[in-house]
């Protein structure tokens, strides 16, 4: 995170982001004055209950929505639309059903005109990183939910984005698979550091993964309620007393909201 001079480099900066949808009496105020600086290689978790504007915030950072006011900067440059410098993993599986695992992971590289041999090499590396070696020629319908999200993560990594944006990627998985995927996410991130913004409504997941947790208020418009710094060593352990204590105190702090 530090650049050798002890100064942390800001990767993403959200400045006074507010967002409204609709007009007149149908106008909904979804986000209010959100400001966050995310440092290089930091793992930021945005934690909030359903309908607190988390996905909207992520889509604004992705450039898929424009903020009603405020600005997002990536490495100091204003975000004006989507781009390959941001890799996105959504809650719902967004794989192409007619493409194999390899085809799905390669797609971003193919679109950028990376030659076949090179893209195969890059895709194979990331398929291996997410633990799917041997499944290159499988189609999405042959994969479990956890495996599909692994493909989504490999695909996002393969384009070598500056920032990874993950929107409740494990929200659809059963509890067991979710734990496994959280552990895998931590392992992958420790192996291949990236700046990550990870959205969830799950406190335990937030404490397990985050360097910092940004808590959004429970009712619309989403406002920043509190920011926690999580200094627990990695790999983290769900049963470690320090982990449980933090989880407990964040739950107590936010129980009216979550
Ligand atoms: N494209 C849109 N058009 C109109 N309203 C929208 C749009 N996207 C989001 N909203 C409004 O914003 C509110 C918050 O949605 P958002 O998906 O950002 O919240 P969230 O915290 O991610 O919720 P969840 O955890 O349930 O996915 C929604 O209730 C909806 O009213």
TrEMBL record:
<feature type="domain" description="ABC transporter">
    <location>
        <begin position="12"/>
        <end position="243"/>
    </location>
</feature>
<dbReference type="InterPro" id="IPR003593">
    <property type="entry name" value="AAA+_ATPase"/>
</dbReference>
<keyword id="KW-0378">Hydrolase</keyword>
<dbReference type="GO" id="GO:0005524">
    <property type="term" value="F:ATP binding"/>
</dbReference>
<keyword id="KW-0813">Transport</keyword>
<dbReference type="InterPro" id="IPR017871">
    <property type="entry name" value="ABC_transporter-like_CS"/>
</dbReference>
<dbReference type="GO" id="GO:0016887">
    <property type="term" value="F:ATP hydrolysis activity"/>
</dbReference>
<keyword id="KW-0067">ATP-binding</keyword>
<dbReference type="Pfam" id="PF00005">
    <property type="entry name" value="ABC_tran"/>
</dbReference>
<dbReference type="InterPro" id="IPR027417">
    <property type="entry name" value="P-loop_NTPase"/>
</dbReference>
<keyword id="KW-0547">Nucleotide-binding</keyword>
<dbReference type="InterPro" id="IPR050166">
    <property type="entry name" value="ABC_transporter_ATP-bind"/>
</dbReference>
<protein>
    <submittedName>
        <fullName>Bicarbonate transport ATP-binding protein CmpD</fullName>
        <ecNumber>3.6.3.-</ecNumber>
    </submittedName>
</protein>
<dbReference type="InterPro" id="IPR003439">
    <property type="entry name" value="ABC_transporter-like_ATP-bd"/>
</dbReference>
């Amino acid at each position: 995170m530090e650049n050798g001079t002890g100064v942390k480099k800001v990767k993403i900066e959200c400045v006074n982001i507010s967002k409204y949808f609709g007009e007149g009496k149908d106008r909904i105020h979804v986000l209010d004055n959100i400001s966050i600086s995310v440092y290089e290689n930091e793992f930021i978790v945005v934690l909030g209950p359903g309908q607190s504007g988390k996905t909207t915030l992520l889509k604004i950072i992705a450039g898929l929505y424009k903020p009603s006011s405020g600005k997002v900067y990536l490495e100091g440059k204003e975000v004006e639309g989507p781009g390959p410098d941001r890799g996105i993993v959504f809650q719902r599986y967004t794989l192409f059903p007619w493409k194999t695992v390899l085809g799905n992971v390669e797609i971003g590289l193919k679109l950028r005109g990376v030659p076949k041999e090179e893209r195969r090499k890059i895709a194979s590396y990331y398929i291996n990183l997410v633990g799917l070696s041997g499944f290159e020629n499988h189609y999405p319908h042959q994969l479990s939910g956890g495996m599909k999200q692994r493909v989504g993560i490999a695909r996002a990594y393969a384009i070598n984005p500056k920032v990874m944006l993950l929107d409740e990627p494990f929200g659809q998985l059963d509890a067991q698979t979710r734990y496994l995927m959280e552990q895998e996410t931590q392992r992958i991130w420790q192996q291949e550091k990236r700046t990550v913004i990870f959205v969830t409504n799950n406190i335990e997941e937030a404490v397990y993964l985050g360097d910092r947790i940004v808590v959004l208020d429970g009712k619309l418009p989403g406002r920043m309620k509190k920011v926690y710094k999580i200094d627990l060593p990695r790999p983290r352990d769900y049963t470690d007393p320090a982990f449980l204590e933090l989880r407990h105190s964040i739950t107590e702090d936010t129980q009216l909201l979550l």
